[in-house]
Amino acid sequence: MNIKSEFPATGIMKTFDNEDSAAYRIACDCHTSDHDINMWVELDRDEYNINVSFYVESYTPWWDKYFNRFNVIWKLLTTGYFQREHHTILNSQTALNFANTIISEVERLENVKKSKK
Fold it and tell me: Is pLDDT at 12 greater than 90 in this prediction?
């Protein structure tokens, strides 16, 4: 298999762009937007680091009869957090495009960082 990253990239949508940050939505291959990943790549002006953040929307089956709400509430009360997993399915092309998007944005922001100093 010899695949190359694409532009425009399959499965990757730029949702925001300015000089020192960009946001992307990475689509799940199952075509359910609930599984998409939101990614921000931004230049931290205070420390001149490049931050890459990922956000997902996670839902709990709160009213499902098999979901134990009391265990969740107890976990929140005793530990202060409730942990959930999130899975996004990427085909080979989208995974390569995802990786290349991160590399391209980091390189672009490194150039912005050099021009600001």
Answer: yes
